[in-house]
Amino acid sequence: MLKKLILLGLVPLAGAVASTVPSLAADAVLGGEVLYRERIALPDNAVVSVELADVSRADAPAVVIGSREISPAGQVPVKFEIRFDDSAIRPNMTYALQARITVDGELWFINDTHHGVDPLAKEAQTILVKRVVRESDEALHDTDWNLTFIEGFDGLPEPAATLTIGDDGRAHGKGPCNGYFGGVKIDGDRISIGQVGATQMACEPRRMQAEHAYFQSLGKVAGYKLDGDTLTLSDADGKALLRFSR
């Protein structure tokens, strides 16, 4: 009889204990990669940030459901995984991924179009970010720079050689004799110009000497500085190799 009473007494106690155990939220994962099309290397201190947000209300700030920061970012494509509580995802709401790349707190890249997503679909996402055009970038790119100085070479021939740096990662221009082109990589205030290709026209010796010095200097370029209408290209030690005006 006592045993029966004890067992009966345990029933409501067990029920009470069970009712106080909270339900554990499921941990969902949304992954993918962040990339851009520009031929620009990221510096070592670049940071990639990705957020999953509820953007249902146009008249209110987005509500962040989960986020991930990758530091150092490395080079694109940069892989990411965002862990979030799937109970926060509600039917008939709108969700989006927002990505940005910063360097020393300065915004370099961001996705400027809506990247809608179903957070529970478990599909890998590719977020395309675009470069944020800074004032210095606008001045550097798509400007016809006229050569005014080559280190170690006096008396540049006229007309002046030119340099144009496109935002597509390529440079081109007219040397003292031949037209030329080459790839460009920009990383902050660092710049490098790949092997230069040129037409094969022959000119007077003085022009050919100037062109040889010009192309050699382009191959040694490691940094740049903009000062008003003057562009200076320098070597790895900061020594000015070439100077241009616009």
UniProtKB/TrEMBL annotation:
InterPro entries associated with the record: DUF306_Meta_HslJ, HslJ-like_sf, Lipoprotein_YbaY-like, Pilotin
Lineage: Bacteria, Pseudomonadati, Pseudomonadota, Alphaproteobacteria, Hyphomicrobiales
Residue ranges of domain DUF306 in the record: 138-244
First and last residue of the signal peptide: 1-25
Pfam family, one: META
Stated name of the protein: Putative lipoprotein
PANTHER family given in the database record: GLYCOPROTEIN/POLYSACCHARIDE METABOLISM, GLYCOPROTEIN_POLYSACCHARIDE METABOLISM
Swiss-Prot/TrEMBL keywords: Lipoprotein, Signal
Source organism of this protein record: Aquamicrobium defluvii
Domain of life: Bacteria
Gene3D superfamilies: 2.40.128.270
